[in-house]
Amino acid sequence: MPPARIALFTTVALVAGCGIAAAQPSIALGPYATGLSSPVGLAAPADGSGRLFIVQQGGQIRVHDGTQVLPTPFLDLTAFVKFGGEQGLLGMAFHPNYPATPFIFVNYTCEGGSPDCTANQDGDTIIARYSVSADPNVADPASRRVLLVITQPFPNHNAGDLKFGPDGYLWIPMGDGGSANDPGCIAQRDNALLGKLLRIDVDQNVNTPPFYGIPPDNPYIGPGDPRDEVYARGLRNPFRFSFDRLTGDMFLGDVGQGAREEVDLKAAGTGAAGNYGWKIMEGTLCTGNTGNCPPTVPPCNSPVFTPPILEYDHSLGDCAIIGGFRYRGTQVPGLPGLYLYSDNCTGRIRAGTEGPPGTWTPSLLLDMSSPPLNISSFGEDPAGELYVTALNTGTVYRVVSGGPTELSVGDVTVTEGDTGGASAVFTVSLSAAVAPTVTVQYATADGTAVAGADYAAVSGTLTFPPGTVTQTISVPVLGDFLDEDDETFTLNLSNPTNATLADGQAVGTLTDDDPLPFLFAGDCAVIEGDAGPTPCAFTVLLAPVSGRTVTVSFATADGTATAGSDYIANAGGLTFPPGTTQQPVGVTVLGDGVTEVDESFFLNLSSEANATLADGQGTGTIVDDDSVSLSPIEVSHGTRIEADMAGGTPDLYRISQRPLGSYEVAVDGLSGDVVPGLLLERLAGDNVTVLQTAVPEGAGSALSLRWENTVPATVNNQHIRLRSPDCGTDCGADDVYTLSVFDTSPSVARFNNSGSQVTVVIVQNPRTQTLAGHIHFWSVAGALLVSQPFTLGERATLVLNTSSLAALQGQAGSITVAHDGPYGGIGGKTVALEPATGFSFDAPLEPRPH
Fold it and tell me: How far apart are CA 201 and CA 212, in angstroms?
């Protein structure tokens, strides 16, 4: 690199200086951005973007997006920046409210005669403001506003840094104007901004010159000198400074003349109007140089002067201090709280450690003097991690641990979900950021969770670029609808390079979020027989399928049937192993020869574990078979009989009904003498009890019986009776009628709630009377899954999403609809939906043909 660029902070002779303490934490420099031209500064907006903005002395600001340096400069000022030696584009700062307030402030040396600098401004310091464009990686060059033009009598000691303090004001340290030994004693004179620490408020006069205002507590506000912008004085070349993000303290590295390099501290909350002593003092050394100084300048070692907290001499080849930052990051062990600084000539990185308040001890952290690394600045990202720029390598380095470092991986708990999409994201961490690339292999392994069923197996190699301390590994979780225990698998690390394993195994816990399955007690019905025992088989249904063992207790209870005489009481427990959905309960029915009505008893469920009772009671129906049939004629769906009323005795028909069906028996077409008292009745199995009497249908002599068979078994012991109290005198062969029998329950041959498909049932009542009934869902094997009652008002429509019925989750089969309306008096359809694809198809409710 040309000598003029290396000599950015040249000083004169070397003297024996303070000793260097033993090294403290081990640090290293990891390359972060390369291929740069004379990088001299860094800034990082707290906008969550992870970007680093790099100031190049020649006039460009480049953007590193976390992966690479972008090819297009953020801002290019080469046309009007005077570059060489200690001059150039030297600093930048983001407004503290950036990007909401989209301003960037820069400090550069003006090239006289350039588009934005007049000839007489050649070499002067410019403080200017720019705005970001619509592209967050490019500034708007037309937005330039000049805040300050500070005349520079010589080409050196330009300082160049600027930063916002915790007070929200812009702080600008200025050098003494150059040459050597401050020939005009400018740093101690009131009539100049040179050699001073300036503070301005950029939120005043935002749109009108001078585009800034004066903070109300600046110490010299008022007529005359010093200027209102001045906050402190007595500086030689404060090239780099910083604020402690935790305490608000200001650390200022002031480049010395030929004897001392110093770090000055302005503690947060202390007063303004400080004086750091130059040129009367160089560090703690009295120079004896008061040439051209005003008579009011204090003598050496005056209490007016603020002494440095740290200093060093030039005996080891150091020549120009590069002020840094107090480390407030987390990735370098032992470093938090230390103040880091360096030297441009040697690249030695030192640390200042605070002991008792006001007492600081220096130590050497990293010696980069052979060959020397020409460090030009430190930078801090929003997380408090530190970076350095080097002129002679054109590189930005990240301050990392010198090692060793250890790898560890943390456990993860994730809710599995139903259909996939969730991931178990493991964080793999290094105990410290280090310069070499770290790699480690990883692979998942089954525990109680199984790859392919509960999660997707992953394996590979994880890479930590220099300075990186965390990486993640994502393991896809395969969701389901299965209630099950929480399950685990492991992520195992192996074969690390440039690190050791501290904790190489993590547990991934898949938390089940599926509701408990539901238990349903089914019904049973059986013809009692005359003597021996007959089993009535209940089915207890578990839905949906469970991944855990489910248990439930059961016991019978009397209804109209009595234990001991009509059936044998039964009690016990049922166990559903994982994957099981049905268990039988058998109850013995005791036959007899007594003519009686059908009787019932109950099966009650209780004390369930790992399930919820949805329907905890089943009904057992004992169908009596002891009555003598009153008619040799059996009718069923589709029967049509023409007969007359001759003989004067009732006409009787035995009717056969299928399980859980619904029926209509209609009589119409009377001829001859009309019998006003005609009765159409349904008799119970005892041939005596009238279960139902027909109602007139329409305006003529038609009658209609409509009912549901609520017994889950075939019923054939009921009779239809047609009679009239007046038949003894009025009925004859000419009184002809027609009797028709209909199974009124329409059906759909298929429904499917398995996988991702769901079925919607639509039932319509086109009539002006209210209808009631049940929608029965049957498994593929023909077992009843669930019955859903409904009531439909006049011309009303029922829409039932079967996903709301727990017993149907994961099930498929068929549907019947039993109701108390006439044959063909109810309509509807099912709609099969595939939500993931939007696919659907309809199937109509079909009446039984006749």
Answer: 5
State which H helix or E strand residue 682 sits in: strand 679-683
For residue 787 the two structure tokens come to: 């019955």
57-111 pLDDT, tens digit each: 999 999 999 999 999 999 999 999 999 999 999 999 999 999 999 999 999 999 9
Q: Is-cis flag, bond preceding 279, omega within 30?
A: yes
Collapse the DSSP code of 37 into the 3-class scheme (helix H, G, I; strand E, B; otherwise coil) and give the result.
coil
Q: How many CB atoms lie within 10 A of CB 739?
A: 22
Residue type at position 555:
A
Location of structure tokens 């049932």: 761
In this structure, are residues 403 and 434 in contact, taking their beta carbons and an 8 Å threshold? yes
Whole-model pTM: value is 0.69
pLDDT band for 700, please (50, 70, 90 cuts): low
Q: Which residues, in sequence order, are bridge partners of residue 573?
A: 553
For residue range 324-339, list pLDDT tens digits in order: 999 999 999 999 999 9
What's the CA gap between 168 and 702, in Å, rounded?
95
pLDDT band at residue 727 using 50, 70 and 90 as cut-offs: low
Give how far Cα 719 sits from Cα of 635, 691, 712, Å: 9, 10, 19
The label of the residue with tokens 């409210």 reads: 97
**Which pairing describes strands 571-576 and 599-609: parallel, antiparallel, or unpaired?**
unpaired
Q: Please state, in angstroms and as integers, the Cα–Cα distance from residue 434 to each residue in 87, 286, 375, 405, following that order.
A: 34, 42, 19, 7
DSSP-derived secondary structure for 537-606: EEEEEEES-BSS-EEEEEEEEESSS-BTTTB---EEEEEE-TT--EEEEEEEEEP-------EEEEEEEE
Tokens 């300036």 correspond to: 198
Rounded to 5 degrees, φ, ψ at 78 are -60, -25
- Picking from 289, 240, 275, 278, the residue whose alpha carbon sits closest to that of residue 256 is 278
Q: Which is nearest to 544 in space by CA: 284, 182, 778, 808?
A: 808
Domains of the chain (ranges; CATH) run 3-401 (2.120.10.30), 406-511 (2.60.40.2030), 518-623 (2.60.40.2030), 634-743 (2.60.120.380), 747-844 (2.60.290)
Per residue in 674-690, pLDDT tens? 456 788 999 998 899 99
Calpha distance 57→621 (Å, rounded): 97
pLDDT at 647 over 80: no
The pLDDT of residue 675 is: 57
Cα-to-chain-centroid distance, residue 503: 26
